[in-house]
Amino acid sequence: MDIQIDLSFLMSWRVFLNLEIGYMSMYIVHMILIMLKNIYILGDGANWIKATRDIFDTTKTHYALDKFHAMQALQRITTYSNMDEYEKAKEFIEADNRSAFKQWIKDFSKKFPDREEIIEEKSKYILNNWAALQRLLKANASCSMEGCISHSLANIFTSRPKGFSKPILAKRLSLRALYLNSFDDKQIFIKLMDSNQTINNFTNLDFSILDDRYKGDTYKVNLNTNFAV
């Protein structure tokens, strides 16, 4: 993973999915945090996330509202049918114009009295977290975690609610990570099952979740689909 000095541009990015954090990963994170001048903890406004500031050096640790949650709340106010209003409100937020945003909420609510409850709920969320959101915008900080969770995990594992045991979920995450990192999991599976050879250190992958599809010499997995999607 190559990163520019200003830590703002990633090359050769990879997605890592796991149920647990190893000791080595925690050590690496600890060493990186020591070297940073400022640490921004991004979250959705929950008190337990804000409290994690106490774990680090509070003189250089700042809590900020993740922009993902703010823009999600704004989108639920306007809906996709009113993107011009969304952009207008977004400009008020990014300009730190709280009074203009509050006036916009009043005007917008009058247009959609049947959606008054959701508009009030989501606008209150934005206003209550206004300072934390401005802290994020002023620092030009960002984090891909929420988007990664939404698109890499929630979209596939919870859009159609199912129950997963921890072992099964771990196996599915390993296959999902292959797909997201542009590996052809079908071809890896075929080669491992048919020739039992080492392929780019993938011999430790657990494909047992597919045992009921693969019996002896008969390959029953649909080659037109991907295991992880």
Describe the protein in words.
- By secondary structure, this protein is mainly α.
- The protein is 51% helix and 8% strand.
- The protein has ten helices and six strands.
- It has helices at residues 23-35, 47-50, 67-78, 83-94, 98-111, 116-128, 130-139, 145-157, 166-180, 185-195, and strands at residues 2-3, 10-11, 39-43, 61-65, 214-215, 218-219.
- It has a two-stranded antiparallel sheet with strand order 1-2. It has a two-stranded parallel sheet with strand order 3-4. Strands 5-6 form a two-stranded antiparallel sheet.
- It starts with a strand and ends in a 10-residue tail after the last strand.
| Number of helical regions | 10
Distance between the termini: 25 Å
Number of strands: 6
Our estimate of the beta-strand percent is 5-15%
H/E element order = EEHEHEHHHHHHHHEE
What is the radius of gyration? Answer: 23 Å
The strands making up the biggest β-sheet line up spatially as 1-2
The main β sheet shows up as:
2 strands, antiparallel
Mean pLDDT: 77
What gross morphology would you assign?
Answer: globular
Structural class: mainly alpha
Helix content: 40-55%
